[in-house]
Amino acid sequence: MIPPFADHPLVSEFNDLKKYFRQHETVASRNRIHQFRTFARVIAEAGLPVGFDVMGSVNFGVATETSDVDLVLYIICEDGYDGECPSPKCRTQQHVENLLIHTWIRGMSESPYPVQVVDCINLNLLERDLKRGDPESPVLLRFAFYRSVCRGVNARLLRPYHSALLDNPDLVERMKPYLWSLFDELVKSSKHNYSIQKYQERLTQLGVRIPPSMMSTIRVHLDQSRKHLSDGI
Ligand SMILES: [Zn+2]
Fold first, then answer.
1. How far is the CA of 40 from the centre of ligand 1 (A)?
2. pTM for the whole structure
3. How far is the CA of 115 from the centre of ligand 1 (A)?
4. Beta 151-153 vs 50-54: how paired, if at all?
């Protein structure tokens, strides 16, 4: 599906870089995606629909056997609960996290790897805010951001919400000013800078010759990030 903010310059640059790195996807990246997809299928059969947006090295397709996984978890909270999860009213997030991290990854993988749930989105809350059409809604902004730059697993679950957003270009437009700050956070984070550099070194180690045009894109991206960083101080 089209990223909600496909025409944002930072989104298109980020996604161009990602597309390039993904051409050389590692077996470890594919295996992790496969394990998350299977997990989503198995627990959906048990009546617990979940989806993911994966970040970091798996998003770029450069994960190694020891890479950890950062992800956004999508759940549908119990009894139609439409607030943020976890809450005293709902433990769905904790339940899914325990199943994923303590049961699934440890049971499935020969060498278990760390998984960090960096955010959790309750799809009931997202649905409510999509109907309200509030451009300042934190859950809407986070969703649009993740759907613009991450790698979806069980994207079928997310499709109705993603479509509802794309069907409302006026709302997307009104959200854009608030979105800059989210991208700023991503670009400013030293972890992100370090990652792009690390991914680039990994490709070189794999014997992949990075074409000069891609090297200059990477350099511009790193320079911009440094500029944002020094401006922010
Ligand atoms: Zn919940």
1. 17
2. 0.88
3. 19
4. antiparallel
